[in-house]
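Justification of resources, computational component.

The compute hours requested in this renewal are based largely on the per-chain cost of generating structure records like the one below. Each record pairs the submitted sequence with a full structure-token output. That output is archived, and it is also reused by downstream analysis tasks.
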Amino acid sequence: MWPTHWPAVARDIAEALDAAIVAARASDAAALTEATEELAALPAEQVGAVLSGVVRELLETLHPDGLTGEDVQDVLTRCARAAALWFPAVDVDSLVTVLTGALGVADVEENPRRPERAVEAAILVIADLLSAAEVPADGYVRQALDEIARAETVEMP
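The structure output for this chain reads:
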């Protein structure tokens, strides 16, 4: 399903991320926990970059004319309420960290609220945004990984 020219780590991230998104969209807490554990076992910096990239692209899709504070609050509220119905372990502070970190408003590495819950929260936010946009995940995952690969090949002056 994923491009064969991607490095093995990129394919592993894409596969684990896909499994986590499927679990979240199906409201399957056990499968989400298992999939986020698989993601957490992969290189954290790379996983974080992909998750942030997917969140940013989905927010841009939903808000092409710009994102307001009220829009972010709506995402946070909608996501927290929906997730709490089937995933009582949802951590609202981690949802905030995911959104602000993806938008570049907060430095997640310097101020992690609950880093052990960040991957899980990112998946919940992504699943919520995918549902709101009514789009499949694979294009956003590909775009995030391709953008990271492109950025890594650009030489800095």
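Residues 8-155 form one domain. The chain has a mean pLDDT of 88.
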